[in-house]
Amino acid sequence: MPRTSRTAALIALCAAMLMIVLDGSIVTVALPAIQRDLRFSPSNLTWTVNSYMIAFGGLLLLAGRLGDLVGRKRMFVAGLAVFTVASLLCGVSTGQDMLIAARFVQGVGGAMTSAVSLGMIVTHFPEPRERGRAIGAYAFVGAAGASIGQVLGGVLTQAVSWHWIFFINLPIGVAAALLALRVLDSDRGLGLRAGADLPGALLVTAGLMLGVYTIVETSRYGWGSAHTLGYGALALVLLAGFLLRQATAAAPLLPLGIFRSRVVAGANAVQVLMVSALFGFQILIALYLQEVRGYGAAGTGLAMLPAALAIATVSLLLSARLNARFGERRVLLAGIALLVVGIGLLTRLPVHAGYAVDLLPTMLLASGFGLATSALTTLGMSGAGAADAGLVSGLFNTSQQVGGALGVAVLSTFAASRTRGLTAAGHDRATALTGGYHLAFGIGAGLLVAALVLAAAVLRQPRVRVARASGSQAAEETPVPSAT
């Protein structure tokens, strides 16, 4: 493929991912307006986010494998179509049930598109240096897009209405789909006969959906409730059944040999920890700004803008060069270290915080996310061969969504519990809320420290690809020169 065509292909892939990442965060600052307009109760309001996360996280692995079988381009474009139509339905929603159902369908389309995107970058950019730059641009979309979504969501909600946070997806989705049809390489896929593994697909999809549902509902029921323990146990049984199926199936959905790659397994584990901390931070800092400091929707979004700019600068201008010069592992460790410091600073956040002194340093240190995401994405996809790129992409995105759901649930639950305790002890509302956020940010910093230790210990000898031949799985271990 000529270089200009590869550039156009990357633009199509990044535009689609930007739309999906924006949608994941753009809703957060619009929630109060949605609640007032559609008369949501506090517990039902969370389902405008949860329904999306459950569908997205539960279907990524299946969508990635189906992309390998029926063709990644077909899966990508079909996902864009589903997502764009669902965005229209979200925007015209006049009731709670309609919005929640449309958000679920959005999650389905998002999973279909996201699951194969990284795999398509691997196949479109075979040369290591160009692939590094492409993954850097893609990582920027994932890292900075969330912060940009909060800025855009706040501005649109305050200037027009919350409906436009969904309508804005329509021109992006249509343009990305048309460009993708024109510039992406067509691939016929392996064919469904190569191994659709329907029983495995049903087990993992049900297990992941139920697991994500259990996690996000802990804020309502608590971690030790019969609801959480019961549904959590059932999710684990389904996932255990899936693993057993994969170990015995002739054509498994997820060849377990893929985890023989130390880098693939380690990168996904590090991502769960890192994203748990960062997604929780994103939600809680927005709540602090609105609930404690009294910021409006637009003000909250603009307060997050320095983080988006810092991440963008690092992701687009520095990450690929640093990865090539120092290796992905070292860049990853440096990025996570910056995040540890940034989140750690928030554990001392005062009730009457000054933005320049107390918040801006953390926003700037968020640039570590741009470093870490680019390096981790490169490492996570280094185990993908041509036949399994969609599967590895789906696995990597699945760990991101599960990590995000886990982080939001864990940090929010501990923050709420601490706030209730401080309120009962006689503290005023602002002090109690801030104390709850302190605890949550401390847990987030701890998760990042765990990610740093795990990355340093495990991500030492990355593998380039995972080979699969004649129904058997074997990891083909080839060191990546730039990861030391």
TrEMBL record:
Keyword Transport set for record: yes
Gene3D superfamilies xrefs: MFS general substrate transporter like domains (1.20.1250.20), Multidrug resistance protein D (1.20.1720.10)
Residues passing through the membrane, by range: 46-63, 75-94, 100-123, 135-156, 162-184, 196-216, 228-244, 265-289, 295-319, 331-351, 363-387, 399-417, 437-459
Family matches, as InterPro entries: EmrB-like (IPR004638), MFS (IPR011701), MFS_dom (IPR020846), MFS_trans_sf (IPR036259)
Topology in the lipid bilayer: Multi-pass membrane protein
Subcellular localization, as worded in the UniProt entry: Cell membrane
Entry protein name: MFS transporter
Keywords: Cell membrane, Membrane, Transmembrane, Transmembrane helix, Transport
GO MF annotation, one: transmembrane transporter activity
One GO cellular component term noted in the UniProt record for this chain: plasma membrane
Residue span(s) of domain Major facilitator superfamily (MFS) profile: 9-463
Species annotation: Actinoallomurus iriomotensis
SUPFAM superfamilies, A to Z: MFS general substrate transporter
